[in-house]
Specification:
about 250 residues; mainly beta; Immunoglobulin-like; 2 domains; 6-stranded antiparallel beta sheet; 1 helix; about 5% helix; globular
């Protein structure tokens, strides 16, 4: 069994030789929310199929950890999947605007790791922005990691997708009406917002003059101080860098 946060919140996922869970017809993989079981909507098939292992792992493809199941099967749901299958967790946010060389080139050809922002002077592989929580509950938290150790970090929201355009040592795609939602200092290269005493993202946005209606898309990045003048100096770069982007439909 393993725990994982998907679009429905945090849950415990189990796999094994069963066809009923909590009195419901649920085969082989089930989700427990603390009160009841539910199905993932698909199962495995094959000759004498078996289910041996389950784990949550972030492969960088969908903005957060996904569920991986291993065993003796040849189909996961309707897809051919030999011995290992992946269920995407439907993360609250979809990643975009990468500084890994897959789109625009970083200012100093300082490409980061896959799915990250452009590389920084601490050579962390670039900073990564992800999100946890639920849009429905308005408890989404943005988490930036891979920054410089104690970098001042600004969580940015835009109402349009642009570019990508050069922004400091990185690339920015959050545009339109830009709002600086939160200012935090990284600890060990990571910063998150909102914190315990902060307004939620929607409430903070409204307080800054951008009320987010249901179904509207907003775009997020975190930019952070990188004062190493020798890493990516002007005019190509500058004294800050930026994560990848996330797009959230509220």
């Amino acid at each position: 069994m393993t725990d994982l946060e998907d679009a429905n919140g945090r849950g415990l996922f189990v796999t094994g030789f069963f066809e009923v869970a909590g009195g419901q017809s649920i085969a082989h993989v089930a989700r427990w929310n603390g009160a009841s079981f539910s199905s993932l909507g698909a199962t495995f098939s094959g000759t004498n199929p078996g289910w041996n292992a389950i784990a949550a792992f972030d492969d960088g493809a969908s903005g957060g950890p996904d569920l991986f199941v291993g065993g003796a099967f040849d189909h996961g749901g309707t897809s051919a999947s030999s011995n290992i299958a992946k269920w995407e967790s439907c993360s609250v946010a979809a990643p975009f605007c990468f500084g890994d060389g897959s789109g625009a080139t970083c200012p100093c050809v300082n490409n980061g790791s896959a799915g990250h922002g452009c590389e920084n002077s601490s050579f962390t592989g670039g900073a990564l922005l992800r999100a946890t929580g639920s849009v429905a509950k308005d408890d989404v938290v943005l988490i930036a990691s891979g920054e410089r150790a104690t970098a001042l970090s600004i969580f940015l929201q835009g109402n349009q997708s642009v570019g990508p355009v050069i922004f400091g040592d990185g690339l920015r795609c959050a545009g339109g009406s830009l709002k600086r939602l939160y200012s935090k200092s990284a600890v060990g290269g990571a910063a998150s917002a909102p914190g315990a005493n902060d307004l939620s993202i929607r409430a903070r946005s409204a307080a800054l003059g951008d009320t987010i209606p249901a179904g509207a898309m907003r775009y997020y990045q975190t930019y952070y101080r990188d004062p190493n003048t020798g890493f990516c100096p002007p005019p190509r770069g500058n004294l800050w860098n930026v994560t990848n982007g996330l797009q959230i439909r509220w």
